[in-house]
């Protein structure tokens, strides 16, 4: 495989557009017309993306609840499967889940998506429940994490708002979710939010205020267990910090298509190409690290080489 593997790449199932239109809700910043299978392939070719792992464009997991939410998640997963099955070398997908507050429905969809649809992982919102008080590490969601941990799942946590990524990461650390469920491989998008820049602040202050059971070192080690994608991460400044913070095998390429303008996506991707990295680092961040994370892609690559 000689092209990028994009782990932060959205798609818009027709069922999502229909549900949002019916509910009278269109998320801020959406350009629904920017995505189509044809536009997607064109963008991938322009950026040298060999494989994209699709996740549903963020519409807020709390909008659709109960049977309606479960039905929408199923439609998204079947649509994602259809795209992957038509072009398995070009696409994979993260499963969409219904509102996690309904644990039974969520676990049913995890099992269906991973067992029947062979999804490459699952996508989660950073919070669930009314008023966004149930963050991803909340005790009410522990059965979800147990199921994902049992399956050694890749878990892509996507924000609704810009600050959600950092908030979700710290919550997963402080609730000990990261250590309790070590088989889950959690991806943070967009350079990990502010985590690489701010991680020492909660690590030190919370420990000194006796508000955390973690030592400073334990907190920082937990923070470095996340996988982090490079969507909207410039090669001159942010990527330099990220490579000092993250473990070298946990930096992955991401684009965030189609939310930012295509010109913006290209700018950040190009800046990563000319960053002061070794050739090995460039290849690892672009695709080799992702191959290790997704067994299906690793197997495809090995078959191509035979």
Automatic annotation (TrEMBL):
GO terms for biological process, alphabetical: secondary metabolic process
Catalyzed reactions per annotation: 6-methylsalicylate + H(+) = 3-methylphenol + CO2
GO molecular function, one term: hydrolase activity
Keyword Metal-binding: yes
EC number of this enzyme: 4.1.1.52
Domain (Amidohydrolase-related): residue spans on this chain: 5-295
Gene3D superfamilies referenced in this protein's UniProt entry, alphabetically: Metal-dependent hydrolases (3.20.20.140)
Protein name per the record: 6-methylsalicylate decarboxylase
Organism in which the protein naturally occurs: Oidiodendron maius (strain Zn)
């Amino acid at each position: 495989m000689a092209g990028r593997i994009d782990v932060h790449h959205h798609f818009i199932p027709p069922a999502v557009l229909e549900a949002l239109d019916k509910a009278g809700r269109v998320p801020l910043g959406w350009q629904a017309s920017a995505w189509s299978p044809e536009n997607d392939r064109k963008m991938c070719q322009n950026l040298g993306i060999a494989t994209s792992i699709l996740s549903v464009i963020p519409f807020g997991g709390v909008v659709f609840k109960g049977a309606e939410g479960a039905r929408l998640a199923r439609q998204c997963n079947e649509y994602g499967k259809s795209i992957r099955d038509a072009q398995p070398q070009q696409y994979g997908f993260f499963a969409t889940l219904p509102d996690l507050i309904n644990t039974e429905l969520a676990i049913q969809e995890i099992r269906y998506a991973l067992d029947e649809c062979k999804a490459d992982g699952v996508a989660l919102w950073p919070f669930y429940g009314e008023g966004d008080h149930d963050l991803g590490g909340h005790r009410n969601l522990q059965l979800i994490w147990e199921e994902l941990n049992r399956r050694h799942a890749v878990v892509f946590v996507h924000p609704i708002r810009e600050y959600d990524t950092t908030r979700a990461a710290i919550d997963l650390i402080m609730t000990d979710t990261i250590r309790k469920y070590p088989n889950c491989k959690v991806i943070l998008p967009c350079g990990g939010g502010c985590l690489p820049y701010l991680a020492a602040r909660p690590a030190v202050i919370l420990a000194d205020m006796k508000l955390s059971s973690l030592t400073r070192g334990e907190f920082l080690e937990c923070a470095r267990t996340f996988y982090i994608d490079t969507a909207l991460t410039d090669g001159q400044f942010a990527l330099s910090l990220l490579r000092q913070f993250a473990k070298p095998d946990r930096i992955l390429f991401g684009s965030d298509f189609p939310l930012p303008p295509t010109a913006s996506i290209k700018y950040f991707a190009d800046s990563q190409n000319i960053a002061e990295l070794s050739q090995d680092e460039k290849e690892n961040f672009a695709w080799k690290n992702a191959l290790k994370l997704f067994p299906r892609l690793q197997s495809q690559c090995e078959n191509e080489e035979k």
